[in-house]
Amino acid sequence: MDLIDLRSDTLTRLQPKDLLNINYDYISDDCYDEDRYVKMLEFKIADLFGKESALFMPSGTMSNQIGLNVLSNPGDELITEAGYHVCFFESSQTSALSGLVINNVRSKHGILTTEDVLNAINNKARWSDLYATPKIISIESSINTYGGLVFPLDEICHLKMLCNKKNMHLFLDGARVLNACIAIGISPDKYTEHVDILNICLSKGIGAPFGSLLVGRKTDIDKAKKVRKWYGGALHQSGLMAAIALNKLKDYSARLENDNMNAQYLGAICSQYCQLTHPVETNIVMIKSRNADNLVRKLKTYGVLATAWTSNTVRFVTSSNINKEMLTRLKSIFEKIHKYKEFI
Ligand SMILES: *Cc1c(COP(=O)(O)O)cnc(C)c1O
Fold first, then answer.
1. Where are the domains of the chain?
2. Ligand 1 neighbours by CB, cut-off 6 Å
């Protein structure tokens, strides 16, 4: 029986068609600015988000870290939500690589609001610019730790107005931003219009084997190119990866829509047996469990793979690995195990 792999959308598999129609003459050294596929990909992504420029990065973490770096100076303050990736996973990198002070907030429902940010600003000494200067507001969409919630567009607008007032920048960790745009039926350029700089991952639901892009103003992206070199992220013949990503981007919206729909179906199944931590909005379903490790181990014996996100939450992510028939099979597994108190 096939495994039902719901651990992550980074585990998607390449298909033979993803490697078709690649012109090897286009692939050259991107450090000489001579790789045509990398340039085409950067142009396509900048255009998709209505920004001036984009830069191909090896990973989302590097893209985030370089984005935050170009917007700040050491000792500046970053205001974000405690569950967002730049804090939840990257707090050490953010402080060690850019010398940023993270002022993190626990928001009420997972969405960082202007009120949260104002509290974070007002609860520290701001007597003069001799003290930490709040420089970046960092948001995420969809929000991984909060069950894949879409960061609401009106809140993005409010945060940008606050940034303008406080002389701050708005950064979006948009690893799964296209899942979010599809969920609310908005074009990527409209959704990110008020964001100064964003990261998007190709290695998540898009299904590319590799890569992320940092997208924003030309002046910021030019700076980012230098920092990428320093971090060792300037790659030579990355055009092969860019070419595969361009193939994957051709039909991304139908695939991500399908992933989002499968997550709705999975959410409806799960909610018959347990509690969801958040309503399902994109391709993530997060459930509460008495013992996440036990539940994940039990599911594995039935060939279902999931992630114990915290000790009492389990994360499922839909992707092109998953179809509806598999989720129906998962329903029958839940039916068997839900009565055991040690799991759910
Ligand atoms: C996956 C992810 C990242 C990091 O991407 P990597 O390519 O794994 O480094 C950053 N932010 C969010 C929200 C993510 O989901």
1. 17-249, 252-337
2. 59-61, 64, 85, 140, 144, 173, 175, 201, 203, 212
